Amino acid sequence: MTNTVFKNVKISGITVVLPENKISVDDELEFYKNDIKLLERNKKILGIKYRYIVENGVTCTDLCEKAAELLLRNININKTEIDSLIFVSTSHDYSAPASACLLHGRLGLDDTCACFDTSGLSCSGYVYGLWLAHSLISSGASKKCLLLAGDTNSLHSDKRNRISNMLYSDAGSATLIEYTKEENTSYFNLGTSGKDWNKIIIPASGYRLPVRKDIADIEITDENGNVWHLYDEILKGMDIFRFTMENAPKSIKELLTFSKKTFDDIDRVLMHQANGQILKTIAQHAAIPKEKTSAETFSKYANCGAASVVSAICDQMHNSCANNAMLVTFGVGLSWASAIINLKKCLITDIQFYKCNEKSISRREQIEEWIKYFKGEEPVKI
């Protein structure tokens, strides 16, 4: 595992934004074979209650743009001082250009700001992004880094799929990371199990198996009635559970050993809100004190993908501070990433909500705009 310590980097502010479209699992009985007992069993085991999903035309970049605007307004810094922007997601608007470039333009950042995307890690991606930002700043390559992380996971699966769709909310987040002369130590522990690359995967999402007419209408229904498409995210639940139980507690232990800390030194343990069952099991295996962690964020806001651990930060810590907060994440790859960070002087906002943009255009309108653009008739206004 990669262990890293940073001395002169601080996190100045964190904001997360969810769409205002709220769905209660109680309103989805039809997807549980109209069996109230089955529904209640899922609620009890997983702790699922609500999730928030985007409306047509809204993407992860929209949510992250809103989060960035709110954060920068609250911190009140000069945008020209931001010299790097990292976008972390599996829900990019386009395979090219990078969503970071779109957000750079929308936010009106200076042309000297370096921008790039990271992709394919989802739920562990935020801590990987923090590690990257800390690395850039520690090396002197950047002074102020804007980290934008999120996913629109509702678009990665069919709503009839009770293995994946019911677990996810859509969300975007913004975090400002800066250089500081004061010593502000943070610790990171990261790792990867690439041999398990196919345990969480969207098969038709790139150029190995691009979406074409021959697969566009293929629909697979498994023995439990869950509906899948080749462009949906596929989860191998038991394999992922075993991976998580093997690596998340180990990462926590190694991080504590590396930092020479115990749970007595940790104010709060904020875990990727995968589901209630997983969080409780990790807490038991890692011997995390009950009063220092919670799965309630999952119950209220579901699994927010790359913004999942950020949703826990904003939900559980917006009215508090922490000298040492431990972040624990695990996700696609399969990958894991944990960190101990100082949030004492960090501006942490409560969960914010995105109202549907009236300027969003339909899929048909987008297609028409691109046809005109290919013909050279007029510029795209999307």
- CATH structural architecture: 3-Layer(aba) Sandwich
Tally of strands: 18
Instruction: Give the biggest beta sheet.
Output: 7 strands, mixed
Number of H- or I-type helical stretches: 10
Rg from alpha-carbon coordinates: 20 Å
Number of domains: 1
In whole angstroms, the N-to-C terminal distance is: 42 Å
Using the coordinates above, name the CATH class.
Alpha Beta
Can you give the helix content as a percent range?
25-40%
- Write the element-wise H/E pattern from the N-terminal end onward: EEEHEHEHEHEEEEHEEEHEHHHEEEEH
From the spread of the alpha carbons, the general shape counts as: globular
- The secondary structure category is alpha/beta
Mean pLDDT level: 91
CATH T-level topology: Peroxisomal Thiolase, Chain A, domain 1
CATH-level-4 superfamily name: Thiolase/Chalcone synthase
* Residue runs with pLDDT of under 50 for 5 or more positions: none
Q: Estimate what percentage of residues fall within beta strands.
A: 15-25%
Task: Map the helices and strands.
Elements: E1 2-6, E2 9-19, E3 22-24, H1 36-46, E4 50-52, H2 60-75, E5 84-88, H3 99-107, E6 114-118, H4 125-139, E7 144-152, E8 170-179, E9 186-192, E10 200-201, H5 213-216, E11 220-221, E12 227-228, E13 234-235, H6 237-259, E14 268-271, H7 276-285, H8 296-301, H9 308-317, E15 325-331, E16 335-341, E17 347-348, E18 352-354, H10 363-374
Parallel strand pairs: 2-17, 2-18, 5-6, 5-7, 14-15
Antiparallel strand pairs: 1-9, 2-8, 3-4, 7-8, 9-16, 10-13, 11-12, 15-16
Helix pairs in contact: 2-3, 6-7
